[in-house]
Amino acid sequence: MKKVSLFGLGAGLLAALTLTAEPASAQQSTLDIVKSRGHLRCQLGTPAPGWYMLSDSGQWSGFDYENCRAVSAAIFGDPDKIEVQSVTSAVRFTAMANGESDMLSRTTTWTLFRDTQLGLDFTTVDFYDGQGFMVLKDAGVNSALELKGATVCVATGTTTELNLADYSRTNGLDIKPVVFEDSNVRDNTFFTGGCDAITNDKSSLASTRAKAPDTTIFKILPETISKEPLGPVVRQNDSQWKDLVMWSLFAMIAAEEYGVSSANIDKVIAETTNPEIKRMFGVEGDLNKGLGVDPKWAYNIIKMVGNYGENYEEFMGEKTVMNIPRDGSPNALWTKGGLLYSPPFR
Amino acid sequence: MAETTQDDVVFRPKPSLPPPPNTVGVVGWLRKNLFGGPFDSLLTIVGVSLIAYVAYSLYQYGIANAVWEADTYRECLDVTKGNGACWAGVSTWMNGYMYGRYPDVEQWRVNLAGVVLAVWLAPFWFPKIKAKILVGMSAVLTFPFLAAHLFLGGEAGLFLQVMVAVAMTLFATVWLNVGASYLGYPSLRVALLRLSGFENKGDHLHKYVLLGAFGVGFVIAFAYQSTWELAAVPTQNWGGLFLTLVISGIGISSALPSGIILALGRRSKMPVIRVFCTAFIELFRSVPLITILFMAVTMMPLFLPVEINPDKLVLVIVAVCIFAAAYMAEIVRGGLQAINKGQYEAAQAMGLNYWKMMTLIIMPQALKVMIPNIVGNFIGLLKDTTLVSIIGLYDILLMAKASGQDGKWLGMHTEPFLFTAAVFFVVCFCMSKYSQHLERTIGGGYGRR
C-alpha cells in the first residue's frame, strides 16, 4: 500500500511538472525566448575542421557556425550574440529536445526517421555530402568499381560501415573492411599503407587528406555511394522559428545567386532596379513581418556574415585545408548545375 | 722494558682480507642484483634493451626530430615528415589547455584564486601554528565563494558578497594568527586582547572584543570587495586544466565529509537513516559516472519547466559530488569496520556519547587506516572528471582534442595527448607522494611497514 502511494506521488509530481512545462513552451515561441534572453544558443559538434573549429584564442568559426551567425544577425543585427553549445553527437538530439539549444547546425544528415520521430524539424539543406573513397594516386584506381577485394579503412558502428557493406554486396566487390574506433588511428593506418582505400563522407575525406604528411599523393574517387544532406535543425512545432532559420539560409543562397556579397551589398542596393533584391533587403515591402524580425534582417546577414559562396570559399574552398571543389558538385548553385536553390523572396 | 722476544706468542689477528673484488662496488652490486643467474641476466638484458628502445624512440620523437617553432601543423610536417613531435602547436595552444576559453585579459583572476588558496593553506605546514582546524575549515567552507565570485565575475548577489567578505576576513584572521604566533603570542585571541588592553578587564567582555574585531575586518572587506568591477565570464567559457581542477577540487573536498556522514548513516541503528544512506550509496555506486552525468545534464532539464535553466557546470559538479560521496562512504565504512570492537566499548565505558566517541576515538584511528584508499579514490576521481568532455565541457582533454581539429593545427593529436598525460602524471604523482608523507607523519602504528 505504502509503495503504491509513493509511486503514485512520484507519478503525480512528474505529470504536474510536465503539465506546467507544456503550456509554457507552447505559448512562448523560440524567437520570443531568444529575443528576451538576448542571445542565441547554437549547438555545434565537438570541433571538426571546416565545419566548426575552435581557435587557440578561443574563437569559434566554421561553415556550420556561419548559419548561427546568420540567424543571430537576422534577430539582433549582430552576428556574435551566440552562446555556443558544443556537445558530442551522442547527446545532440536530447540537447535540442530539452530546450537547451535553440538550433542545431552540425553536419547532421536529414533522414525520415530523425525528422519524424525525434521531435525535430530539418529546415533545409546547406551542404550535400555523400560517402566516397580515397586511394593513393599511385594505385592507378580510377573508379570505386575497381576496388575488387580491396581492404578499406572505415569507422566502426557508423552508417558509413553499413553503406560500405551494401555497396560491396550490390556490386560484388568483396571489399574487406578494416574497422576502427578512433578516426586518428584509422587515418594513420591508411597513411602508412594499412589499407588500400579509406571510406567516409567526402568532406571528411578532404580533412583526412589535409592531415597527411604529403597531401598530394591521394585521390578521391568520383563515386558517391550515399546521400548525406546536411543542414540546420530546430525543434518541431515552432513554424515561425523554423521559417526564420530556413530563410536566413535562403537569404545567403539567394544573395549569391543575385551576385550580392558582403563587399558590394551597399552599392547593389543603391543601384539595383531588381524588385526582388529590393524586397529581400527591405528596401520595398514588408517581407520581414511574418518572420518577426527587423526589415534589414537579410541585409544584416549578408553584410555581416556574407553570402553562401563567400562562406564556402572561406571554410571549404580551395585555399582552405578542406579544399573541396564546388564546381560540378551538388553544392553549386542551381544556375550552375548544382542543387542549391532558394525559393523566391516575394 | 719490553722484553719481547721472538719466543713470546702474542695473538695478533691478521687484518681481514678485503672482500673478493667481484662482490663489492659497482661490479658486485651488478652481479648481485642484475646478473645473479642466467635467468636474471636474461631479464636484465631484455628489460634494459626495452627501456633503451622506448627512451630512444621518445627522444627521437620528442626532442631530436621535434619542431619547436612553426605557424601551422603543415610546416611541422614538412620538416618532420611525421617522425617528430610538433611542440609549436602545443605551445600555441598552451593557454587553451590551461584555461579553456577563459578570456585572456581575465585569466589573472584564476591565477589569483590559485595563489590565494595556496597562501591560505600554507600555515598547515608551519610547525609552530596551532590552529590547523581554523586554517582547514575556513578554507574549505568559504574559499569556494571567493573563488566563485572571482571566476564568474559580474554582478554578485548580496549573499555571495557577504560570503566573499567573510572569506577575506577569515583569510586575514589565519595570517594574523600566524603573525601573532611568530611574534610570541600564544594565539591571535590573546594577542588581540592584550594589545587592546582588555586582557584583565573581565572575561565576559572578551567575546565582544573579538567579535568587534572580526566585525571591523568584515566591514572593511565588504567595502573593499564592493569596489571590484569584474567582467562576467559565463561557465561556458571555463575550460582546460582550470575546469578539471574546479570540478575535481570541489568533488574531492566534498567527498570526505559527505562520505563520512553517509558511512555513519549506513551503520546507524535508526532504520530510516540507515535505509536512506544504504539506498543512496548502492544506487550511485552501481551506476557508471558517465550515466550520472548524462542523467544530470541532458535528462534532468526534460523534467524541469522551460524557464528553469540550471547551469550545466553546476549540474556536473553536483553529479560528481554525489558519485564521489557514494564511493567515499564505502571506504570510510571499511575503515570503521577495521577498528577493533574494543575501542567502541571502551569509549562507551568512558561515558562518551555517540558523537564524542566517533570524533575523539573512532574516526581519528579509522581515518589513518584509510589514507591510502582515500588518496587512491581522489586520484581516480581526478582522472574520472575527463568524462565531462563527453557532455561538452571543455576540460583539458577536450581542449587537447579540439586543438588537433583547428584548421591551422589539423592532424596534431599525439602531441596534445602526450602533454595532457604529462600534466595528469605530475598532478597525480604529487597527490600520491603527499599521501605517503601523510602516512608517515600521522599514520603512526598503522603506517607503511
UniProtKB/TrEMBL annotation, chain A:
Gene3D superfamilies: Periplasmic binding protein-like II (3.40.190.10). Keywords: Signal, Transport. The keyword Signal applies. InterPro entries: Bact_solute-bind_prot3, Solute-binding_3/MltF_N. One of its GO terms (biological process) is amino acid transport. Residues 1-26 form the signal peptide. Residues 39-268 form the Solute-binding protein family 3/N-terminal domain. It comes from the Bacteria. Pfam families: SBP_bac_3. Belongs to the bacterial solute-binding protein 3 family. This is Amino acid ABC transporter substrate-binding protein.
TrEMBL record, chain B:
It is a multi-pass membrane protein. This is ABC transmembrane type-1 domain-containing protein. Belongs to the binding-protein-dependent transport system permease family. HisMQ subfamily. Residues 241-431 form the ABC transmembrane type-1 domain. Keywords: Cell membrane, Membrane, Transmembrane, Transmembrane helix, Transport. The keyword Membrane applies. It comes from Thalassobaculum fulvum. The keyword Lipoprotein does not apply.
